[in-house]
Amino acid sequence: MNQSLERYSRQVLFQHIGEAHQKELMDSYAVVIGCGALGSVSSSYLTRAGIGHLGIIDRDFIEESNLQRQILFDENDITENLPKSTAAKRKLRRINTKINIEGIVTDVNYTNIEELTKDADIILDGTDNFETRFLINDICVKNNIPWVYGACIGSRGLTMNIIPSKTPCLRCVFETMPQIGTFPTCDTAGIIGPIASIIASIQVTEAIKILTKDFESMNKTLLEIDVWDTKFKQLDVGDLRLLNKCSTCTSHNFEFLEAKDGVLTTILCGRNAVQVMHRNVGRLNLEELAQRLRSIADVSSNVFMLKFKVKDYEFTVFPDGRAIITGTDDLSIAKSLYSKYLGM
Asked: CA–CA separation, 285 vs 200, rounded Å?
């Protein structure tokens, strides 16, 4: 065996890979967007599998509550106040010095996603919100980049492969974003670590199939797993691309990439606060949102507004989906907090 392949010898022995496909992996460029529970696991396995060039993009810093499920991080990373993508790069370089690993600390948005994913052979979803997923979907359909959707909450997870022009895209399955405040997040509903590891492991397996062009073996369904109830479900979504006349992959309307949808952020001068506003949101049911949040914070609400405080941040949420987040003037932090506690 070629000496450069020796570290991957057990993977090369696997009948569906062999030396030729291993070399394809070593020439591939994978981008992981989001380095939380899903992204930390998938980045680790991609590194160990010998993906030649790995880009890890995340806007957040490590918090103590991340350690329960985000396997690349430890308490020293928190002490050093490291961004997730920086800590991930440092850890992964200790695992495999033979590959090129980039740790990029930034908020992925419509102004930079094209440059961030330039030349990528595949993108893996490690995000925690639908806005970024729809943005990934837009750029992948536009530039013909395969990507692997993944999501998990509680004990339940979902994943699906998206191959532009060959499979349904994310908008074929989820035509619109969930109503703000009605979709649970890890910060409001919790999550157990194993489901993230399972979904991310499947994402990487599917990525390896796609990169080695084994489309016959590729999963062609929306896979749903609940590890607590030990339930597995495969939903046939194959016909949706033609039936739904999807605005993205059929009509090539890239609403999120063109910033027709998404989140607006504005610094409120002199107040150490940021206003976050979603462009397309209906009227919120503040009482339902209050019920969802009461497990993590003291909440006060009436028909006009809802208030709650988490750590050093105070939220004031209005029925039109607008939120004022006091305690920061950093737009990226405010956007992340909005996603964590209100969902988007």
From this structure: 33
